[in-house]
Fold these 3 entries.
Entry 1:
Amino acid sequence: MLMPRQKTPDLSLPIVGGGQFVLSEEKADLGTIICFYRGLHCPLCATYLKELERLTPDFAERGITTVAVSSDPEDRAADMAKRISASSLRIAYDFPLKEAKDWGLYISTSRGKSSIGIEEPALFSEPGLFLITPQQTLYYMSVQTMPFVRPHFSELLAATDSAIKKNYPARGEYTGELSG
């Protein structure tokens, strides 16, 4: 289980349009947002990623980089990049589901074609949103078992502003014994 203030697994994935996203080599002043999404088949993911695309420059102003990640192959990831008109948000692909488990993501099985008529992969991860510090430790995470009711990026942006202003530490770090 990932723990706040502890090092996360590394990620090294190809990016649509060329290049490689390597978490341990990110040069963000304050951190990196990793948005794991279900894949091209998910209409909610497209809407969600459009919002992250729109706010990526605002996060960048604060020293935070962004990347969206799925287990989709390159062609489907490229289709998602087109669908959301990605220009600032990096879209990484070929995320191994074995690594999804390391990140605490839930895995679902295909139900055939989605509501937009695109075939779901046999297996894919459900959404997860992570803010990773420049030291590659976990600052914030939200993991879901369903495609809906996700954290709003505008709220994360506002919370980031507050955390920066107050030098607010990552929470949920206690691992000691509990009574009762």
Entry 2:
Amino acid sequence: MRDGAIEGGTAGLTSFRRYTWWTVPGMTVAVLALFVGAWVLDGDVPLWARGPVAAALVVEVWACVVLLSRRLALMSMPMPTPDAHPGGPPLGRLIAAVGAGVVLAAFPLALRNYGLWPVAPALVVAVVATYLPPPRRRLLIVSAVVLATLPGGAVSLLAGDGEPVYAALFPAGLVAFTAWVTLGPLWAWDTARRLDEARRLEAELAVREERLRFAGDLHDIQGHRLQVIALKSELASRLVEPDPARAAAELKEIRRLAADALSDTRAVVQGYRRTSLDNEIGNATRVLAAAGIDARMTLDPAAVAAGLTDSARHLLGLVMREATTNVLRHSQARRADVGFRLVDGHARLRIGNDGTEDHDHPTGLDGTGLRTLAERLRAAGGELTWGRDGDRFVVVAELPAKPTRLPRSPESPNPADGAAR
């Protein structure tokens, strides 16, 4: 169950990570190539400025892509605590990005291009901010926004071109906007990763809880029986010489107790002692929810109170267990629904889920697959069917049942008309 529960979420997270990679580093490359690259190719730009800017552009693209890619890789690693941080950027690549950013800012600023010069520094600030914890990140962005008003404003005032407001405010706004569009997708990716880790942990805890329940059942059966066997063995050993007849009787009782303990142990292992429809519906709800699947249970009170034998409830419980396992192992389900109703004198259990794959006829390897269960239900006078219904996979089990009247007042509605979830 654990593997099936985790596979669906991992596939979705991988797609989201791929989307984030193309969004953040891809946006960085696009902005630098479109704006700075177009400026380099502009015929009005002096030749003495094109060479250094073109070289710095290549270095800036390489450094930013490497730094952002490494940041995404670090975010994919499990953190020891929710507030933990993966550490700072590689020093060499950071120095390269800062140096190239200075070159890409200095030349356009010297030519009084107030809209272009802050592009590279804004990207460098955003990249560095991704490596910092939230308090230091906010301090860096606020400081960069304030400082971005100074170079352009000072150059404009010295040149007397009449554009000091634009030269001061546009770079500040560009720095804030770049940080926002860069950090937003990375924050979404980090949140999705932490939610996926929490879902994995919840699914593992559900499986461990079921194992502990099984261990408790086994202890309850074996502990008492083995203690009685030990006491009777000690008694028989004392009675061998003074009372051989009673010792023989005690030995026969010990053999009977051992046989009973063996039978009960097999029953627990095979699921006969505790496997029932009520238990399996409860377990399915918990396990499916832990796997991130929206499970809806609709139980007809008339069907719950129907005169099903223990054997019939056990068979339906096995169907519920097998169907739940198939949902986890053989689908990418996001929604599942379970209905238990009384229809024409038959108790009908219906399990459906979306996200179906090419598993029209899933079967188990332990003798409790759907094919084997279908044979057992037919032998009990019932029927088990399964297959696709549009984009859903549906399993339907039916067994004969004797309806039991539910006590109700004259004002109460018919229980068969209601449904409990």
Entry 3:
Amino acid sequence: MEFQAKNCYIMKMDKLTASSTAEHIRTLARTYQVTYSEGPNDRLAHHMSRLAGDMVEFDEIEQLLIGLQRANRITRIEMIQLQARYLHEAKL
């Protein structure tokens, strides 16, 4: 059975409020029962970044985005768009 409702959860990005992107991501994760779990490649990337002097720490929302994309619930492009919006809102 193929998943047919691919775009049913997409919201207009210009209609989101300051906290709505984070809440939208949390809702997607709850709806699809998706969580983030660190894998061996994630640990390797973390150590390589650390050794290069670039400490990259993803917060809860960014981890949920990774989990949603890995579970094929959102596309890579959707993940990038949601992360950009989330990070933009975090600066406000």
